[in-house]
Design a protein that fits this description.
The chain has 142 residues and is α+β, with helices and mostly antiparallel strands. It has a single domain (5-136), classed as endopeptidase domain like (from Nostoc punctiforme) (endopeptidase fold (from Nostoc punctiforme)), CATH 3.90.1720.10. The protein is built from 3 helices and 8 strands, in the order αββααββββββ. The protein has helices spanning 5-14, 34-45, 64-72, and strands at residues 26-27, 31-32, 75-77, 87-93, 96-102, 108-113, 118-123, 129-136. The chain has a 6-stranded antiparallel sheet. The chain has a two-stranded antiparallel ribbon with strand order 1-2. Helix 1 (5-14) packs across helix 2. It is globular, with a radius of gyration of 13 Å.
């Protein structure tokens, strides 16, 4: 059975564990933030183009700037259980929002960790409340 777009996305994200963290980072050498991690993972998974938001900070009052990012890149909102490659927008604190990718094993979450200064895979349950949950529908149109 061929891997789904989500599974390929999860494997691509897993391959970036250890890349340095950098706010607004889009480069594997200089670092990635959570948006850069998603964009780089999409590219590695086969997306032809990737759209990224701009104008955000480490702390934000609103998530509005993030909502179009997922759908513009082939994700569709879902309420189903979390699968490999699903994208979650989490509330880390009252003014800090974070994108997290469910790992290929469905028991870990891959994200760009500002405190540890690198992309990490965190096992177990998410320590944050998900606000949005998206599933990658297709990479060909992205």
């Amino acid at each position: 059975m061929a891997a789904t777009a989500g599974q390929r996305f999860a494997v691509a994200a897993q391959s970036l564990v250890g890349v340095p963290f950098r706010l607004h980072g889009r480069c594997l050498v200089n670092g990635l933030d959570c948006v850069g991690l998603v964009a780089s993972s999409l590219g590695r998974a086969g997306a032809k183009t990737v759209t990224t938001p701009s104008g955000y900070a480490l702390r934000n009052r609103s998530i509005d700037h993030m909502l179009g990012f997922a759908t513009a890149n082939g994700f569709a909102e879902t309420n189903s259980p979390v699968w490999a490659g699903d994208l979650l927008l989490c509330a880390v604190s009252a003014a800090q929002f974070h994108l997290v990718i469910c790992g290929p094993d469905r028991r870990s979450y891959i994200h760009a960790h500002a405190g540890l200064r690198k992309v990490v895979s965190t096992p177990g349950d998410l320590p944050w409340s998900p606000l949005k949950h998206w599933r990658l529908a297709d990479l060909t149109g992205a």
